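Good morning C.,

I know you're traveling, so I'll keep this short. The sequence:
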Amino acid sequence: MYRCSIFLHALYFLNYWFVALQGSELNLSNVFLLKGKDLFMELKTQQPTSQFVWRFKIKNNIIRYIPGQKGDFENVYGKRVFNKELNYSLQIKNVGLNDSGLYHAIDSGAQETIIAGYNVIVQERVSPVVLNVSSVSPSPGSCNVTVTCSTQSSSLNSTFTCTPRTCSEDGGDPAEVVTSDARLNLYLSNGSIGICNHSNKVSRSRSTMDIKPLCFKDGKIRANIYYLI
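The tokens, ready to paste straight into the viewer:
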């Protein structure tokens, strides 16, 4: 009995890695989705002729369909929808972060064959940004403005040098902070507009500020330039 149990477990893991290998060779479609939205995964091939399943993270069955029998719907989170009329596609309503991962459509007849694959990444909406002036420092013929771009979890700053005609970024490159799920940029546009941009694949928050008027008025250094902390 013990040997039989070991044999069955060995078969399971061999099948697991076989399907995983198929998935690595499959051209997966990357899907980025905002948390709370509905996800639709389409099966673009012809309708299966044998037992068919949608599977999450290789081993978790979501639904199963057997031709000639009543569909066996396996409900995972209480929000799955399997719609035969939509070419065996799978819809997931109100996705959460835990819904991120690999989804495979599998024809599981005599031999399991992956016929569609999706790599789903669910992301939250990025937090708002705040763009503030940190300091304004005049010098003969030019003026330096340092601004700070902040979110709930990170911040960065950059100094812009302005003349009566235009402003430029010190060092020439935009300031940037990149994390695993978002990007925070601070840069100059059109020679005067400072832009703070917080974004990921599904959302964006932005704040802008006209830099040059902080230094110049009517082509001359402002008389009331002050220092900010």
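Safe travels,
E.
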